[in-house]
Design a protein that fits this description.
Elements: E1 2-5, H1 9-21, E2 26-29, H2 32-41, E3 46-50, H3 58-67, E4 76-81, H4 82-91, E5 98-102, H5 106-119, E6 127-130, E7 133-136, E8 141-144, E9 147-149, H6 153-164, E10 170-171, H7 172-180, H8 188-201, E11 209-212, E12 216-219
Parallel strand pairs: 1-2, 1-3, 3-4, 4-5
Antiparallel strand pairs: 6-7, 7-8, 8-9, 10-12, 11-12
The structure holds calcium ion (CA).
Calcium ion binds at residues 7-8, 50, 52-53.
Length: 225
């Protein structure tokens, strides 16, 4: 379930329509009142929050979400008007997981949602394993054949993405977007450096991460080994 708090009905309806058409359950609210009432009934997987709202504004709602242990982990994407609010909201470091500058396209919105949902792991899944690699998603620890491996946050996120999508070829640009974020002004070499250190740290299991020449990287599928 995805909640969208947006006072402009045209935008809200389009967002909810698009989400449903993309296979998500979705519900729209024009202000904080309906949103908080719904939160008591069902905790969503993700919230899209407009900034300027009647009643509590989006930043205040976000702050309240983050201050409660029950709701602090819910991913939030802030929707902000481009010039006036965008820089301000980002400058505030409000604790949102991502931002969408209005007017945003629906495909853009869906790709942001998918990226945010991929990054936020469900709490009930504790350990994911892949061919000798075990990742404890709650403790943020990794072992290879039982031996602890110390990864940086970016290496960890890369490994998580690969293990979650075996066989999928990620371009360097896609990895930059997924792991470093839309606004990261880095070079694709950054990706190569991190893949290199990740492979080294994974020792034998590092060979599972394959270079696809001229394209990017993928996690080898079980039948390829
Ligand atoms: Ca608004």
């Amino acid at each position: 379930m995805i909640y969208c708090v947006e006072d402009e009905s045209a935008i809200r309806d389009l967002v909810v329509y698009t989400l449903k058409a993309s296979g998500y359950e979705a519900q729209g609210f024009e202000s904080d009142a309906g949103f908080w009432a719904a939160m008591k009934e069902l905790k969503p997987e993700l919230v899209i929050l407009d900034v300027m709202l009647p009643g509590e504004d989006g930043l205040k709602i976000l702050k309240k979400l983050r201050s409660s242990p029950v709701t602090m982990d819910i991913p939030v994407i802030m929707a902000t008007a481009k010039d006036s609010e965008y820089d301000k909201v980002i400058g505030l470091d409000s604790g949102a997981d991502d931002y969408l500058a209005k007017p945003f396209g629906m495909m853009e919105m869906i790709s942001h949602i998918k990226a945010v949902l991929r990054r936020s792991s469900p709490k009930q899944v504790n350990i994911i394993t892949y061919d000798g690699i075990a990742m404890d998603m709650n403790k943020h620890t990794v072992t290879v054949n039982g031996n602890p491996v110390s990864l940086t946050l970016k290496e960890y996120e890369l490994l998580k993405l690969f293990i979650g999508n075996p066989g999928h070829v990620f371009t360097r640009d896609a990895l930059l977007t997924e792991i470093w974020g839309m606004d990261f002004a880095g070079e694709t070499r950054t990706v190569d450096v991190h893949i290199g250190t990740l492979r080294t740290k994974l020792a034998n299991a590092g060979d599972l991460i394959q270079t696809i020449r001229g394209v990017g990287y993928k996690m080898m599928e079980k039948h390829e080994q």
